[in-house]
Amino acid sequence: MEEINLIIARNLKAFRESKKLSLEKVAEITGVSKTMIGQIERGESSPTITTIWKIANGLKISFTSLINNPQPDIKVILKNDVQTLFEDHEKYRLYPFFPFQEDRRFEVYSVEIEIGGYLSSVSHGEGTEEFLTVFEGDLTVQVNNIEYIVRNGDAIRFMADRPHTYYNSGDTLTRVSMVIYYPK
């Protein structure tokens, strides 16, 4: 695993350069000396949590944007590398391909439901929406005690801040893409 001071060095320098800020300007707006900012950017210093917070607050960026490795522009996720979640005696399989991140207000799943497979979901947070696209089979979705049949190639959007269920009402495996959006 990469050392945290090298991650901070790379992130701070990239941010400073993208905003076309000089070391002097960063020192001025953060209250951290120019010498210390330079040492941090070169990976020669392991800043304290307090110093990282000063830099983040002065630059008006999140603390984690300085300490986390940036995500690559492109990332292929293999299904076999995704931790599968099971329900209904493994008739309902959920693959969390893109989990929720604070800077993104959504998560993306692939769902497989065997014939007769069923999941009853509790209410999500207020204002949460789900977007489902069926790519194979038929899916029955129940929201507010009303059933909607979504067939291969069709999609449904609904407010997920109330109980809802998913059921494979067809005679083949059902495959679904699921996006859950969380408002701020």
First-last Cα distance: 32 Å
Annotation field: number of helices = 5
Q: How would you sum up the global shape?
A: elongated
Strand content: 25-35%
Spatially, the strands of the biggest sheet line up as 1-2-3-10-5-8
Any idea what the radius of gyration is?
23 Å
Tally of DSSP β-strands? 10
Report the mean per-residue pLDDT as an integer.
92
Topology order in helix (H) and strand (E) letters: HHHHHEEEEEEEEEE
List unreliable stretches of 5+ residues: none
What percent of residues adopt helix (DSSP H or I)?
A: 25-40%
Tell me about the largest β-sheet: 6 strands, antiparallel
Secondary structure class reads alpha+beta
Q: How would you explain this protein's 3D organization?
A:
This protein is of the alpha+beta class. The chain has helices at residues 4-18, 23-30, 34-41, 49-59, 63-67, and strands at 85-87, 92-98, 106-113, 118-121, 129-136, 138-143, 146-151, 155-159, 164-167, 174-181. Strand 1 and strand 2 (92-98) form a beta hairpin. Helix 2 packs across helix 3 (34-41) and helix 2 packs across helix 4 (49-59). It is elongated, with a radius of gyration of 23 Å. The two termini are 32 Å apart. The mean pLDDT is 92.
